[in-house]
């Protein structure tokens, strides 16, 4: 087991539930339907990757150095992808203009994709038992 994966997965999962509930109960009257859908997408991806972190923390099929790389890809991918969507979806609620960070979203998504590709490559390299 890898404790940092388990802690990160648990923290991101907890935050995903809190942020999702806050959006549903507190932000829904203030946001457009498109913004709510974007917010929901960010929560879904955060939760999917939280569960993946928990799963990866409970297994040992990845090489230690690769585990570290994948860990940081997913942690920063979640922060950049979901975090930027949260800010962009709530842009009209503040005086700050978060539109300038719009390119962070695809960057975060790219980090998540790279993490998944590295896992796939690792699975193909597994030896048959």
UniProtKB/TrEMBL annotation:
Signal peptide: none annotated. InterPro entries: DUF423. The keyword Transmembrane helix applies. The keyword Transmembrane helix applies. Pfam families: DUF423. It comes from the Bacteria. It is a multi-pass membrane protein. Belongs to the UPF0382 family. PANTHER family: TRANSMEMBRANE PROTEIN 256. This is DUF423 domain-containing protein. It comes from Autumnicola edwardsiae.
């Amino acid at each position: 087991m890898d404790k940092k994966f388990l802690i990160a997965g648990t923290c991101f999962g907890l935050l995903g539930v809190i942020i999702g509930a806050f959006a549903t109960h507190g932000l829904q009257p203030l946001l457009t339907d498109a913004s709510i859908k974007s917010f929901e997408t960010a929560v879904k991806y955060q939760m999917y990757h939280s569960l993946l972190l928990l799963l990866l923390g409970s297994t040992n099929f990845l090489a230690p150095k690769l585990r570290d790389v994948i860990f940081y890809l997913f942690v920063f991918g979640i922060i950049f992808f979901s975090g930027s969507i949260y800010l962009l979806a709530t842009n009209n609620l503040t005086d700050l203009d978060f539109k300038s960070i719009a390119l962070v979203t695809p960057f975060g998504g790219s980090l998540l994709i790279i993490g998944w590709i590295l896992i796939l490559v690792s699975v193909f390299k597994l030896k048959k038992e």
